[in-house]
Design a protein that fits this description.
heterodimer; A: MetI-like fold; 2 domains; two-stranded antiparallel ribbon; 2 strands; B: alpha/beta; Rossmann fold; 8 helices; globular
Chain lengths: 322, 262
């Protein structure tokens, strides 16, 4: 499979229809990347299968490992049970509740700290002391504080995501281009107008970074909290399987954790991309944060002009025989 | 005061809405706290006049505009609009920035609508007025685009439309064409004259370009020298060869060059 070769075999579209510059030799066959990703996962599964099947014990011991096939069979069986779906829905409910809470409060607190010196003085030192405490170490606190385990787990999940969201919001709000706010103030816009029309939309790309990190940490913490104090939930089930030496069950649990984690991260990622469609993108598709800095955007334009548009257009014309 | 109609406007100051605003600075000290840039500044901008302000960079041109916009409180002296003390930023004093001050996540249309939205103008009227202003600056077909998808000149035109859409009584312009190439800049100056015709807004236009100052201004203030010169009318690019204009231009350049350390 050679991507450049297949790219060359694709006929160049007519020049008039092409919306942007074409990069000859750099555009692989559309399915190539997808195929490569799938192949990487399949290769990893194959290695696992072989190591477990032949009970390889070379310092690392795979003799007790269930094989991929055993795990898959167990996975299939569990998908048909009500308990499995109960676990999944419990875990998802906890993470959605905790994460939503963290997103709202994190953005609010981060913005307040960045915009108000009073809020910064009152909350800043407190948060700096609380931040280094791993959320999972708050389990005893959660047990003391909350009447039910359920609320405790949501609290842990919230605590995990709250700090990344707060910190990234604070930085994003502080890094806002001042001229945006000044423009709205000279229109007669007050505090709230500036907040809604400038601060929140302008800081959103930075906030989304925090949300992405936050959802990952939340997921880790909801599973850990369930292992310690849950009733139902994927983490609880995985730990239960371990205590009764059901290793295929443990691996089903891990696969489920991985898949659900991926699902929640992707959801945040997609939401983020939808909300920040306005961000300028370079020719290679990477996002450049504008920040209103002229020189940075100008630099991008020069790069695109020198490396991309001109050369590509010339090459395309040369490659069209008729 | 020969041949200018500025004196006429001064003689009949008016404060009716839609009319230009009189901006006055008396013995003003401007700058950031602890770092005054301008001292003892006296300036009287008559309603409806176009005052251009020239001076070398670092002389406090931007400071003056930001103070007039209300973004920077004066450190001393008196600052008034139509005789009343000037306070904080307000919708009747629009500021056009040199840098790109459009909100990058809003289309050009949505940017132009913003000052109207701030004032609480209803959605349909807001839309219609924004479209009207975009048409006046020739951006109708780009109305739905994001700022970084149009050229620098188009962005500045959108900024101009945004500033004027709110029907301000004073427009403060901080080297709005400073980042544009000479060709675009000439077109923008012409456009500015065209769109300002019909609005009665007072304009304070800061620039480091002497020719731009002479072309646009009814009067030219030489910041740092305390001098204000009248510019003969009508404005015409052809008049730059006119002996009076040449003499004026020489005078402006000389006064700028005389400044020690400029």
């Amino acid at each position: 499979m050679s991507a450049p070769a297949s790219a060359r075999s694709v006929p160049a579209p007519p020049a008039a229809v092409v919306p942007g510059p074409v990069f000859p030799g750099r555009r692989p066959w559309p399915g190539a990347r997808h195929a490569r990703r799938t192949a990487a996962v399949l290769a990893a599964l194959a290695v696992w299968q072989l190591l477990a099947q032949f009970r390889v014990d070379l310092w690392l011991r795979f003799s007790q490992f269930p094989t991929v096939i055993e795990t898959a069979r167990e996975f299939g069986r569990r998908l048909g049970t009500a308990t499995y779906w109960q676990d999944v829905s419990d875990s998802l409910t906890r993470i959605v509740a905790g994460f939503a809470l963290a997103a709202v409060l994190g953005v609010a607190v981060g913005t307040a700290i960045a915009r108000s010196s009073v809020a910064s003085d009152l909350l800043g030192p407190l948060l700096e002391v609380l931040r280094p405490i791993p959320a999972i170490a708050l389990v005893p606190v959660a047990i003391l504080l909350f009447p039910s385990n359920e609320q405790g787990i949501v609290f842990i999940t919230f605590a995990a995501a709250f700090f990344p969201v707060t910190v990234s919001t604070r930085h994003a709000v502080r890094a806002l281009t001042p001229v945006w706010e000044e423009a709205v103030r000279t229109m007669g816009g007050g505090r709230w107008r500036v907040l809604w029309s400038v601060v929140l939309p302008g800081a959103l790309p930075g906030i989304l970074g925090g949300l992405s990190v936050g959802i990952g940490v939340s997921w880790i913490c909801v599973i850990s909290a369930e292992m310690i104090s849950g009733e139902y939930g994927v983490g609880y089930r995985t730990w239960q399987d371990y205590t009764i030496v059901d290793y295929p069950g443990v691996f089903v649990g891990m696969a489920t954790i991985g898949l659900l984690g991926r699902l929640t991260s992707t959801a945040v990622e997609l939401l983020g991309r939808r909300l920040t469609r306005w961000l300028p993108r370079t020719a290679s598709g990477t996002v450049t944060y504008p920040g209103g800095r002229l020189h940075r955007r100008a630099a991008g334009r020069v790069r695109a002009g020198a490396g991309g548009a001109v050369d590509a257009a010339t090459l395309r014309r040369e490659r069209e025989p008729s | 005061m020969t041949g200018t109609d500025v004196t006429v406007t001064i003689a009949a100051p008016t404060q009716a809405p839609g009319q230009g605003m009189r901006l006055t600075l008396a013995d003003a000290v401007l700058g950031r706290p602890g770092a005054p840039v301008l001292r003892g500044l006296d300036l009287d901008v008559a309603p409806g006049e176009i005052l251009t302000v020239v001076g070398p960079s670092g002389c406090g041109k931007s400071t003056l505009l930001r103070t007039l916009a209300g973004l920077l409180p004066p450190l001393g002296g008196r600052l008034s609009q139509d005789g009343a003390p000037l306070e904080g930023p307000a919708a009747d004093r629009a500021l056009v920035f040199q840098e790109d001050a459009l909100l990058p996540w809003r289309s050009l249309r949505a940017n132009v609508e913003l000052p109207l939205a701030v004032r609480g103008v209803a959605r349909t009227e807001r839309r219609a007025r924004a479209e009207d202003w975009l048409a006046r600056v020739g951006l109708t077909e780009h109305a739905g685009r994001l700022p970084h998808h149009v050229s620098g000149g188009q962005r500045q035109r959108a900024q101009l439309a945004r500033a004027l859409a709110g029907r301000p009584r004073a427009v403060l312009m901080d080297e709005p064409f400073g980042a544009l190439d000479a060709q675009t800049r000439a077109g923008m100056q012409q456009l500015l004259v065209t769109v300002l015709h019909g609005t009665r807004a007072t304009v304070v236009f800061v620039t480091h370009d002497v020719d731009e100052a002479l072309f646009l201004g009814d009067r030219v203030a030489l910041l740092g020298t305390g001098r204000v010169l009248d510019v003969p009318r009508p404005r015409d690019r052809g008049a730059s060869a006119d002996p009076a204009t040449v003499a004026l231009r020489r005078e402006v350049l000389a006064s700028l060059g005389d400044r020690p350390g400029a």
